[in-house]
From TrEMBL:
<protein>
    <recommendedName>
        <fullName>protein-tyrosine-phosphatase</fullName>
        <ecNumber>3.1.3.48</ecNumber>
    </recommendedName>
</protein>
<feature type="active site">
    <location>
        <position position="17"/>
    </location>
</feature>
<keyword id="KW-0904">Protein phosphatase</keyword>
<feature type="domain" description="Phosphotyrosine protein phosphatase I">
    <location>
        <begin position="5"/>
        <end position="153"/>
    </location>
</feature>
<dbReference type="InterPro" id="IPR050438">
    <property type="entry name" value="LMW_PTPase"/>
</dbReference>
<feature type="active site" description="Nucleophile">
    <location>
        <position position="11"/>
    </location>
</feature>
<dbReference type="InterPro" id="IPR023485">
    <property type="entry name" value="Ptyr_pPase"/>
</dbReference>
<dbReference type="GO" id="GO:0004725">
    <property type="term" value="F:protein tyrosine phosphatase activity"/>
</dbReference>
<comment type="similarity">
    <text>Belongs to the low molecular weight phosphotyrosine protein phosphatase family.</text>
</comment>
<keyword id="KW-0378">Hydrolase</keyword>
<feature type="active site" description="Proton donor">
    <location>
        <position position="127"/>
    </location>
</feature>
<dbReference type="InterPro" id="IPR017867">
    <property type="entry name" value="Tyr_phospatase_low_mol_wt"/>
</dbReference>
<dbReference type="InterPro" id="IPR036196">
    <property type="entry name" value="Ptyr_pPase_sf"/>
</dbReference>
<dbReference type="Pfam" id="PF01451">
    <property type="entry name" value="LMWPc"/>
</dbReference>
Length: 159
C-alpha cells in the first residue's frame, strides 16, 4: 500500500479555522471513498488553547453541515510536523509566515496558504473568533471550498 499523503491544517489557536478545515476535509475524503489516501490533522502556532476542544461556535457551525469536530483537541505546531506531513496549509499569511520560520531546513514539507494551494487565490481565511455565527459560516464556506479543491487534486492523482 502507498503511504498516504499527510496534510496539516494550521491556524493560530487550533480551535476555529484549522479544526474546521480538518473536519471538513476528512468528511469530504470519506464521502468520496478517498480517506485511505490522505492523513489529515490540525495544529496551531499559538499555545493559549492547548488541549481544548474547538470553539463551541465552530462545533455548532460544522455540526450544522453534518460534520462532528467536537472530539478534536488543540495542539501546537511542532518541528516534527514538518517531517510527518507533506503539506502544511495555513489559514492566513501571518500563520504562513510563522510556519515558514519554524520549518526546519531539512524538511521537504510544502508550507502554503490553504486557499491559494486549493486554487482559490492568495486569500486568507478570516479568523471568526471575535465574530458572530455568520463569521464562522463564512470561514466554513471557505475551508469547504478549499477541501473540494484538495479532493479534486487527490482524485486526479496530483497529490
Amino acid at each position: 500500500m502507498v503511504r498516504p499523503i499527510g496534510i496539516l491544517m494550521v491556524c493560530l489557536g487550533n480551535i476555529c479555522r484549522s479544526p474546521t478545515a480538518e473536519g471538513v476535509l476528512r468528511a469530504r475524503l470519506d464521502a468520496a471513498g478517498l480517506s485511505e489516501r490522505v492523513r489529515v490533522d490540525s495544529a496551531g502556532t499559538g499555545d493559549s488553547h492547548l488541549g481544548q476542544a474547538p470553539d463551541p461556535r465552530a462545533i455548532a457551525c460544522a455540526a450544522g453541515h453534518g460534520i462532528d469536530i467536537s472530539g478534536l483537541r488543540a495542539r501546537r505546531l511542532a518541528a516534527e510536523d514538518f517531517d510527518a506531513f507533506d503539506l502544511v496549509l495555513c489559514a492566513d499569511r501571518t500563520i504562513l509566515h510563522e510556519a515558514r520560520i519554524r520549518k526546519p531546513r531539512t524538511s521537504h514539507a510544502q508550507v502554503e496558504l490553504l486557499l491559494e494551494w486549493a486554487g482559490l487565490g492568495k486569500k486568507d481565511v478570516p479568523d471568526p473568533y471575535y465574530g458572530t455565527a455568520r463569521d464562522f459560516e463564512h470561514a466554513f464556506r471557505l475551508v469547504d471550498a478549499a477541501a473540494q479543491g484538495i479532493l479534486e487534486r487527490v482524485r486526479q492523482g496530483r497529490l
